[in-house]
Design goal:
Elements (H helix, E strand, L loop, with lengths): L8 E6 L10 H10 L2 E6 L4 H13 L4 E5 L11 H11 L10 E10 L7 H18 L3 E6 L2 H12 L5 E3 L6 H9 L3 E4 L10 H7 L7 E3 L12 H4 L8 H12 L3 H16 L9
Parallel strand pairs: 1-2, 2-3, 3-4, 4-5, 5-6, 6-7, 7-8
Bound molecules: zinc ion.
Length: 279
Protein backbone atom coordinates (compact mmCIF):
# COMPACT_ATOMS: atom_id res chain seq x y z
CA UNK A 1 0.00 0.00 0.00
CA UNK A 2 1.44 3.37 -0.95
CA UNK A 3 0.71 6.88 0.08
CA UNK A 4 1.31 10.35 -1.29
CA UNK A 5 4.97 10.84 -0.33
CA UNK A 6 4.35 14.45 0.60
CA UNK A 7 2.45 13.11 3.60
CA UNK A 8 4.94 10.93 5.44
CA UNK A 9 3.87 8.85 8.42
CA UNK A 10 5.56 8.12 11.74
CA UNK A 11 5.02 4.82 13.55
CA UNK A 12 5.32 5.73 17.23
CA UNK A 13 5.27 2.14 18.52
CA UNK A 14 7.23 -0.62 16.81
CA UNK A 15 8.75 -3.59 18.63
CA UNK A 16 11.51 -3.79 16.08
CA UNK A 17 13.86 -5.59 18.48
CA UNK A 18 11.41 -8.50 18.73
CA UNK A 19 12.83 -11.87 17.67
CA UNK A 20 10.19 -12.06 14.93
CA UNK A 21 12.21 -9.40 13.10
CA UNK A 22 15.61 -10.98 13.70
CA UNK A 23 16.01 -12.47 10.25
CA UNK A 24 14.85 -9.60 8.03
CA UNK A 25 14.88 -6.35 10.03
CA UNK A 26 16.64 -4.28 7.31
CA UNK A 27 13.96 -5.32 4.81
CA UNK A 28 11.22 -4.42 7.26
CA UNK A 29 12.69 -0.93 7.65
CA UNK A 30 13.06 -0.66 3.89
CA UNK A 31 9.44 -1.66 3.25
CA UNK A 32 8.24 0.84 5.86
CA UNK A 33 10.14 3.62 4.12
CA UNK A 34 8.67 2.58 0.76
CA UNK A 35 5.18 2.73 2.29
CA UNK A 36 5.75 6.32 3.46
CA UNK A 37 6.58 5.44 7.07
CA UNK A 38 9.66 7.60 7.21
CA UNK A 39 10.36 7.58 10.95
CA UNK A 40 9.75 5.04 13.70
CA UNK A 41 9.99 5.02 17.47
CA UNK A 42 11.26 1.60 18.53
CA UNK A 43 9.72 0.40 21.79
CA UNK A 44 11.93 -0.73 24.67
CA UNK A 45 10.13 -3.19 26.94
CA UNK A 46 13.03 -4.36 29.14
CA UNK A 47 16.60 -3.26 29.81
CA UNK A 48 17.83 -5.63 27.09
CA UNK A 49 15.30 -4.55 24.48
CA UNK A 50 15.78 -0.86 25.36
CA UNK A 51 19.50 -1.33 24.78
CA UNK A 52 18.80 -3.06 21.45
CA UNK A 53 16.40 -0.26 20.48
CA UNK A 54 19.06 2.32 21.27
CA UNK A 55 21.58 0.51 19.04
CA UNK A 56 19.07 0.49 16.19
CA UNK A 57 18.42 4.19 16.68
CA UNK A 58 22.15 4.88 16.57
CA UNK A 59 22.55 2.85 13.37
CA UNK A 60 19.59 4.60 11.73
CA UNK A 61 19.98 8.13 13.07
CA UNK A 62 17.25 10.41 11.76
CA UNK A 63 14.98 7.49 10.92
CA UNK A 64 14.67 5.40 14.09
CA UNK A 65 14.45 6.48 17.72
CA UNK A 66 14.12 4.45 20.89
CA UNK A 67 12.20 4.38 24.11
CA UNK A 68 13.69 2.95 27.30
CA UNK A 69 11.42 1.20 29.75
CA UNK A 70 10.07 -1.95 31.35
CA UNK A 71 6.74 -3.37 30.22
CA UNK A 72 4.34 -4.14 33.10
CA UNK A 73 4.55 -7.83 32.08
CA UNK A 74 8.25 -7.68 32.98
CA UNK A 75 7.87 -5.55 36.09
CA UNK A 76 9.11 -8.40 38.33
CA UNK A 77 12.52 -7.84 36.73
CA UNK A 78 12.61 -4.24 37.93
CA UNK A 79 15.23 -3.29 40.53
CA UNK A 80 17.55 -0.35 41.19
CA UNK A 81 20.18 -1.76 38.83
CA UNK A 82 17.62 -1.91 36.02
CA UNK A 83 16.61 1.66 36.74
CA UNK A 84 20.25 2.80 36.64
CA UNK A 85 20.71 1.03 33.28
CA UNK A 86 17.63 2.70 31.80
CA UNK A 87 18.80 6.08 33.04
CA UNK A 88 22.24 5.58 31.45
CA UNK A 89 20.71 4.44 28.14
CA UNK A 90 18.42 7.45 28.11
CA UNK A 91 21.36 9.84 28.26
CA UNK A 92 23.16 8.41 25.22
CA UNK A 93 23.51 10.72 22.24
CA UNK A 94 23.50 10.25 18.47
CA UNK A 95 26.11 11.34 15.93
CA UNK A 96 24.88 14.93 15.90
CA UNK A 97 24.51 15.15 19.65
CA UNK A 98 20.78 14.43 19.46
CA UNK A 99 18.84 12.36 21.98
CA UNK A 100 18.29 8.79 20.74
CA UNK A 101 15.94 7.78 23.55
CA UNK A 102 12.93 10.03 23.12
CA UNK A 103 10.61 8.66 25.82
CA UNK A 104 10.58 6.64 29.02
CA UNK A 105 8.51 3.50 28.50
CA UNK A 106 6.99 1.21 27.75
CA UNK A 107 5.68 1.50 31.29
CA UNK A 108 2.36 1.26 33.05
CA UNK A 109 -0.01 -1.34 34.49
CA UNK A 110 -1.54 -4.47 32.97
CA UNK A 111 -3.94 -6.35 35.27
CA UNK A 112 -5.38 -8.29 32.36
CA UNK A 113 -2.76 -10.99 32.04
CA UNK A 114 -1.02 -10.69 35.39
CA UNK A 115 2.43 -11.74 34.17
CA UNK A 116 3.90 -9.73 37.04
CA UNK A 117 2.28 -9.26 40.48
CA UNK A 118 0.34 -6.01 40.78
CA UNK A 119 2.48 -4.57 43.56
CA UNK A 120 5.60 -5.19 41.46
CA UNK A 121 3.91 -3.44 38.52
CA UNK A 122 3.05 -0.42 40.65
CA UNK A 123 6.57 -0.20 42.05
CA UNK A 124 8.10 -0.35 38.57
CA UNK A 125 5.63 2.16 37.12
CA UNK A 126 6.22 4.64 39.95
CA UNK A 127 9.99 4.43 39.45
CA UNK A 128 9.72 4.98 35.68
CA UNK A 129 7.36 7.93 36.11
CA UNK A 130 9.90 9.46 38.47
CA UNK A 131 12.70 8.77 35.96
CA UNK A 132 10.74 10.50 33.20
CA UNK A 133 10.23 13.53 35.43
CA UNK A 134 13.91 13.59 36.29
CA UNK A 135 14.99 13.31 32.64
CA UNK A 136 12.16 15.54 31.40
CA UNK A 137 11.28 13.04 28.70
CA UNK A 138 7.69 12.10 27.84
CA UNK A 139 6.28 8.72 28.91
CA UNK A 140 5.11 5.95 26.57
CA UNK A 141 2.31 4.33 28.53
CA UNK A 142 0.63 0.92 28.53
CA UNK A 143 -2.61 0.30 30.44
CA UNK A 144 -4.86 -2.74 30.31
CA UNK A 145 -7.66 -3.50 32.80
CA UNK A 146 -6.00 -1.26 35.38
CA UNK A 147 -7.56 2.10 34.66
CA UNK A 148 -8.29 3.38 38.18
CA UNK A 149 -4.85 2.60 39.65
CA UNK A 150 -3.14 3.77 36.50
CA UNK A 151 -4.89 7.13 36.39
CA UNK A 152 -4.28 7.71 40.09
CA UNK A 153 -0.53 7.13 39.65
CA UNK A 154 -0.32 9.16 36.46
CA UNK A 155 -2.26 12.03 38.01
CA UNK A 156 0.23 12.22 40.85
CA UNK A 157 3.12 12.90 38.45
CA UNK A 158 1.32 14.53 35.55
CA UNK A 159 2.12 18.16 36.32
CA UNK A 160 5.86 17.46 36.32
CA UNK A 161 5.91 15.18 33.25
CA UNK A 162 7.12 16.53 29.89
CA UNK A 163 4.34 14.62 28.07
CA UNK A 164 2.37 11.39 28.09
CA UNK A 165 1.02 9.12 25.37
CA UNK A 166 -1.33 6.25 26.13
CA UNK A 167 -0.04 3.80 23.57
CA UNK A 168 -2.43 1.35 21.89
CA UNK A 169 -5.50 2.87 23.48
CA UNK A 170 -8.27 0.24 23.59
CA UNK A 171 -10.55 1.67 26.27
CA UNK A 172 -14.04 3.15 26.36
CA UNK A 173 -15.27 6.72 26.15
CA UNK A 174 -15.10 7.41 29.89
CA UNK A 175 -11.50 6.16 30.03
CA UNK A 176 -10.64 8.28 27.02
CA UNK A 177 -12.11 11.37 28.67
CA UNK A 178 -9.96 10.88 31.75
CA UNK A 179 -6.81 10.59 29.62
CA UNK A 180 -7.68 13.68 27.61
CA UNK A 181 -8.39 15.57 30.80
CA UNK A 182 -4.88 14.61 31.97
CA UNK A 183 -3.47 16.09 28.76
CA UNK A 184 -2.44 12.72 27.32
CA UNK A 185 -1.86 11.95 23.67
CA UNK A 186 -3.57 8.84 22.31
CA UNK A 187 -1.80 6.16 20.26
CA UNK A 188 -4.03 4.27 17.82
CA UNK A 189 -3.16 0.81 16.46
CA UNK A 190 -4.73 -1.79 14.20
CA UNK A 191 -6.90 -2.81 17.15
CA UNK A 192 -9.25 -0.24 15.62
CA UNK A 193 -9.54 -2.46 12.53
CA UNK A 194 -10.80 -5.52 14.36
CA UNK A 195 -14.60 -5.56 13.97
CA UNK A 196 -15.02 -7.95 16.87
CA UNK A 197 -13.44 -5.59 19.35
CA UNK A 198 -13.57 -2.07 18.04
CA UNK A 199 -17.20 -0.83 18.19
CA UNK A 200 -16.92 1.34 21.28
CA UNK A 201 -13.29 2.13 20.53
CA UNK A 202 -14.27 3.62 17.18
CA UNK A 203 -16.79 5.90 18.86
CA UNK A 204 -14.12 6.97 21.35
CA UNK A 205 -11.43 7.61 18.74
CA UNK A 206 -13.84 9.82 16.80
CA UNK A 207 -13.87 12.08 19.88
CA UNK A 208 -10.11 12.57 20.25
CA UNK A 209 -8.99 16.07 19.27
CA UNK A 210 -6.74 15.61 16.22
CA UNK A 211 -3.82 17.36 17.88
CA UNK A 212 -3.72 14.53 20.46
CA UNK A 213 -3.69 11.62 17.99
CA UNK A 214 -0.69 9.55 16.91
CA UNK A 215 -0.47 6.36 14.84
CA UNK A 216 1.33 3.11 15.62
CA UNK A 217 1.39 -0.50 14.49
CA UNK A 218 2.69 -2.13 17.72
CA UNK A 219 4.29 -4.57 15.24
CA UNK A 220 4.87 -7.51 15.23
CA UNK A 221 1.60 -7.58 17.20
CA UNK A 222 -1.92 -6.52 16.16
CA UNK A 223 -1.83 -7.42 12.50
CA UNK A 224 -4.83 -5.76 10.81
CA UNK A 225 -7.27 -8.54 9.77
CA UNK A 226 -7.25 -7.40 6.13
CA UNK A 227 -3.49 -8.13 5.93
CA UNK A 228 -3.72 -11.73 7.18
CA UNK A 229 -3.64 -13.22 3.71
CA UNK A 230 -0.51 -11.34 2.68
CA UNK A 231 1.32 -11.27 6.04
CA UNK A 232 0.40 -14.43 7.90
CA UNK A 233 0.56 -13.45 11.55
CA UNK A 234 3.27 -10.81 11.74
CA UNK A 235 2.47 -7.11 11.63
CA UNK A 236 5.08 -4.63 10.38
CA UNK A 237 5.46 -0.85 10.17
CA UNK A 238 4.81 -0.81 6.41
CA UNK A 239 1.17 -1.56 7.28
CA UNK A 240 0.71 1.71 9.19
CA UNK A 241 -1.28 3.22 6.27
CA UNK A 242 -4.06 0.73 7.13
CA UNK A 243 -4.38 2.33 10.55
CA UNK A 244 -4.30 5.77 8.95
CA UNK A 245 -7.11 4.78 6.62
CA UNK A 246 -9.32 3.55 9.44
CA UNK A 247 -8.68 6.63 11.58
CA UNK A 248 -9.66 8.77 8.58
CA UNK A 249 -12.84 6.73 8.10
CA UNK A 250 -13.80 6.82 11.78
CA UNK A 251 -13.11 10.53 12.25
CA UNK A 252 -14.50 11.61 8.87
CA UNK A 253 -11.32 13.45 7.85
CA UNK A 254 -9.20 13.10 4.71
CA UNK A 255 -6.36 10.58 4.94
CA UNK A 256 -3.87 13.27 4.10
CA UNK A 257 -5.12 15.56 6.84
CA UNK A 258 -4.75 12.77 9.41
CA UNK A 259 -1.30 11.89 8.04
CA UNK A 260 -0.09 15.46 8.24
CA UNK A 261 -1.37 16.18 11.72
CA UNK A 262 -0.34 12.86 13.30
CA UNK A 263 3.16 13.24 11.86
CA UNK A 264 3.40 16.78 13.20
CA UNK A 265 2.12 15.57 16.57
CA UNK A 266 4.72 12.78 16.73
CA UNK A 267 7.59 15.09 15.76
CA UNK A 268 6.61 17.63 18.34
CA UNK A 269 5.78 15.13 21.09
CA UNK A 270 9.01 13.12 20.80
CA UNK A 271 11.19 16.01 19.61
CA UNK A 272 12.19 14.13 16.44
CA UNK A 273 14.43 15.84 13.95
CA UNK A 274 13.63 16.02 10.25
CA UNK A 275 13.58 12.75 8.38
CA UNK A 276 16.55 11.59 6.34
CA UNK A 277 14.40 9.29 4.23
CA UNK A 278 11.91 11.70 2.71
CA UNK A 279 10.49 15.22 2.92
ZN1 LIG B 1 1.79 -2.06 25.12
Amino acid sequence: MSLDPSYPLIDIGVNLTHRQFASDRPLVIERARAAGVVQQVVTGTSVASSKAALLLARDHAGELWATAGIHPHDASAYDVAALASLRALSLERGPRGEALVVAVGECGLDYDRGFSPRDAQRRCFAALLALAVQLQKPVFLHERAAHADFVAMLREHRASLAGAVVHCFTGNLAELESYLELGCHIGVTGYLLDDRRAGELRRAIARVPLERLMLETDAPFLLPPSARKSHGRRNEPALLPLVLEEVARVTGHERQAIARITTENARRFFGLGPTVAGP
